[in-house]
Amino acid sequence: MNLGALLGSSGLLWSGLLLTVYLSAITIVTSTVLGAVVGFVRASRVPGLSAILRIYVELFRGTPLLVQLLFIYFGAAYIGMGWVTTFIGAVVGLTLYEGAICSEIFRAGVEAVPPAQHEAAHILGISKWDSAVRIIMPQALRVTMPALIGQEISLVKDTSLAAVIGFAELVNQSQAVIGNINQPMLVLTVVGALYFIICYPMSVGARRLERKAAR
Amino acid sequence: MIVNASNIQKAFGDAQVLKGVSLEVDAGEVVVLIGASGSGKSTMLRIIAGLEHADEGQLSVCGTPFAHGKPTSPFNGRVGMVFQQFNLFPHLSAIENVTIALRRVKHLSKPQAERSGVAALENVGLGHKAKSYPSQLSGGQQQRVAIARALAMEPDLMLFDEATSALDPELVGEVMKVMRGLAESGMTMIVVTHEMEFARKAADRVLFMDNGVILEQGKPTELFESPREDRTRQFLQRVRGAED
After folding, report:
1. DSSP readout, B81-146?
2. Tens of pLDDT along B116-150?
3. Mutate which of B91, B98, B154 to disrupt the A interface (most A C-beta within 10 Å)?
4. How distant is the Cα of B81 from the closest Cα of chain A, in angstroms?
5. Would you call A171 helix, strand, or coil by DSSP?
6. Which of A22, B34, B43, B108 is deepest in the core (most CB within 10 A)?
7. Which residues of B149-162 are buried (b: 16+ CB within 10 A; e: fewer)?
8. Which residue of B has its CA nearest to A136?
């Protein structure tokens, strides 16, 4: 093994790791917000809108993220939107795909709150908005938290697919490093370990929340 | 008159649950609805609360007329309801359960709401449990918090939908005691219950519902001692058999 060579290329891995964390952080926020809005709208059965959102959810849940990323990035170039960089393509693709899955988690959470909670709020005169924000959503969030964190863990790993459209995140950079030092197993081990270091604490956090929610 | 209902009809699918129920309740009256399950008692109560919408009939509650089965303006707590399953908000403490509508509906300041809330909890003997969450309270305590939550809104009418049916037998008494106290304080109440003891002692009028209609009504002594209808007699015998 040639650790010296690896250290010589560590700058590439380091910049790849930073971009992976950056892409993950941004899309965790965007996909969770998108998923929350879509999920709550679908759960409240807004006529027309809910049906359209269902088509979105089914479409993005029913096709591979890899295909979506390629479609968005190269499709944008094809229709003359040359300003769509690999980063924008990755953010848009991940947001739409993970948002669709998050929305199902949120929807299930809202629907897990007993309808009697609405009745209790209604008879007290609490408005629909207050009831949604102060009664239903906090209860829905509590039950969805573990599943949501599980989904964010998947998202961190899914960012690796952005390598395919040429976004210089960790896996993309590792390919370059492998080319440079010709030590594929060593590099892949390091890359795998880096993902694990990010994901494992999230997994522990999810388990803690789950135990807390069970109490 | 607090409740004025005439010829209320309601069907769920093919099942005609209410077949023309008329009911008048005056201020300060305590009316108890008894009858077998499926007789339409709870549905009638939920229609008065505005939680179900009648198919036919005229209804006005606390001076608010109904149109298309719904109150024409929101009750905003003027009608209080206590449910079989308590329906407290599990993520809020007892005091937060009691004050949320005071804050969001009556727009009281936080200290004002807290003061009313604590008073309402003390009223049901739970001033010391203000900070507890529903999961930390017994069923009887949860139901008393639910009563306090409704009473804090200073309702003109209180509805009780089998408020003690989900409770362990040893917890029924504490809730009944609160309900008896409320009846004596002059609150207008409509109570759906299987507790004949409450009907005998606290009711001004007992209504026997059977198969979607009010079959018989009268003062508790009349209805319990000398029921006119065979169905009423049979029902009371069955209930007494269960009590012995």
Report:
1. EE-TT----TTS-HHHHHHHHHHHTS---HHHHHHHHHHHHHHTT-GGGTT--GGGS-HHHHHHHH
2. 999 999 999 999 999 999 999 999 999 999 999 99
3. B91
4. 7
5. helix
6. B34
7. bbbbbebbbbbbbb
8. B89
Task: List chain A residues with CB under 8 Å of B89.
Answer: 117, 120-121, 135, 139
Planar angle of CA B149, B154, B156, nearest 5 degrees: 115
Q: For residue A132, list chain B residues with Cβ-Cβ distance below 8 A.
A: none
Nearest to A159 by CA among A36, A22, A29, A58: A22
Q: Are strands B64-67 and B70-71 parallel, antiparallel or unpaired?
A: antiparallel
Give the whole-angstrom CA distance, residue A58 versus residue A53.
Answer: 9
Q: Which residues contact A86 (CB under 8 A, 6 or more apart)?
A: A73, A162, A165, A166, A167, A168
Express each pLDDT in A153-210 by its tens digit: 999 999 999 999 999 999 999 999 998 888 899 999 999 999 999 999 999 988 888 8
Distance CA A39, CA A98 (A): 12
Alpha-carbon distance of A71 to B25, in angstroms, equals: 68
